[in-house]
Amino acid sequence: MSRATPTPSRCRLAPPARAARLLLLACACEAMGPPPGHESAPAVAGTVDRDVGPTPLRACFAATASGDASALALSWDFGDGSPRAAAAAVCHVYAEPGSYAASVAVSDGAARSAMAVVVVTAAAP
Predict the structure, then answer these.
(1) Is the pLDDT of residue 70 over 90?
(2) What pLDDT score does 26 carry?
(3) pLDDT tens for residues 40-65?
(4) Computed over its alpha carbons, how large is the radius of gyration of the chain?
């Protein structure tokens, strides 16, 4: 029966008493949440079901955002001058050939925001 040889670690462990105090402090901070003014910024990711196709190209977009869910606001800009949409899932038709940078932005009401871009190419029929 062979035994696995432990690999050396680059981490240094604190003496047991100090490690216990640090762990307790970390757990207490996690339970309280971040201090006021230090909340994390929102994050967003965007996807599209069809990123290339002939005009009229119907593309359906989906956004996934994280952050303070009670205050998040989404906004899609389709890159073709059409009105924005404020939903997580939305479809849009590109009538003219071209490459478009569709972007989704999320803001949390505390002046923090994030943006993701999806490129869509509508070809001549």
Answers:
(1) no
(2) 36
(3) 889 999 999 999 999 999 999 999 99
(4) 23
Residues 24, 27, 28, 34: is their CA dihedral positive or negative? positive
The span from the CA of 13 to the CA of 18, in Å, is 9
Task: Measure Cα distances from 27 to 31, 35, 75 in Å.
Answer: 6, 14, 36
What is the number of other CB atoms lying within 10 angstroms of the CB of residue 120? 22
More confident residue, 9 or 41: 41
DSSP annotation of 85: B
- From the list 39, 67, 61, 71, the residue with the least C-alpha distance to 116 is 61
- State yes or no: cis peptide before 34, omega within 30 of 0: no
The total number of residues written for the chain in this structure: 125
Residues 65 and 63: their CA atoms lie apart, in Å, by 6
Specify the pLDDT at position 6. 43
